[in-house]
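Collaborator request log, item 7. Partner lab (contact: R.S.) asked for a structural prediction of Plasmid stabilization system protein to inform their binding assays.
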Amino acid sequence: MQLVFLPKAEQDLEAIGDYIALNNPRRAASFVRELQAQCRKQAKSPKAYRPRPELGKGLRSCAHGNYLILYAESDRLVQIVRILHGAMDIEAQFAEN
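Returned to partner:
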């Protein structure tokens, strides 16, 4: 499966890294790498994770630490849609779109 980060997901990763870097730059870089590695795992077995029809057709999610990785899968493509902190109102984030 091919893995693609949509623009909002790329922005989320950057914001997560920036926030963590305020206190620990080294951990920020390693945590962003962990999130990216989890996304690669999802691309290998996309149907293994929880469907999230309440957020959008075909969306699935996977937790990593306090973050939720949301993605869509079709044919041979996995698109990372968003990476959000679990304390956020996830449904509100998708209602804005």
